[in-house]
Amino acid sequence: MLFKRFGIVFARLLLNKQDEIRQMEDELQGMDKMDFVGDKREYLLSRDEDVKREPSTIPDCWSRTRPQLLEKLEKKIMEY
Whole-angstrom Cα distance, residue 6 to residue 69? Predict the structure, then answer.
């Protein structure tokens, strides 16, 4: 039996996943920079503090929390 490998399609799908991961990585770095510059380093130094973070301390420009982003990023990397 002969099976088609779909090499080009597979490569395109991998490139798409890579770009999604890169975008989430950029978002994570932006979050880290905002907390570092904004004197909220305790959230960078302690995962527990970051998870228990009060909603009022999360910048409005964030569409999700850092733990939520890390969870989604982990899933995306596992898919990759």
Answer: 31
Alpha-helix residue ranges (DSSP H) falling in the chain = 7-37, 42-45, 47-51, 66-79
Cα separation, 14 vs 73, in Å, equals 15
> Tens digits of per-residue pLDDT, 44-59?
999 999 999 999 999 9
Q: What is the CA radius of gyration of the chain?
A: 17
C-beta separation of 20 from 76 below 8 A = yes
Six-digit token pair at 73?
Answer: 């990023």
CB neighbourhood size of 17 (10 A):
14
User: Could you tell me the pTM of the whole model?
Assistant: 0.85
- Residue pair 69/23 in contact (Cβ under 8 Å)? The answer is no
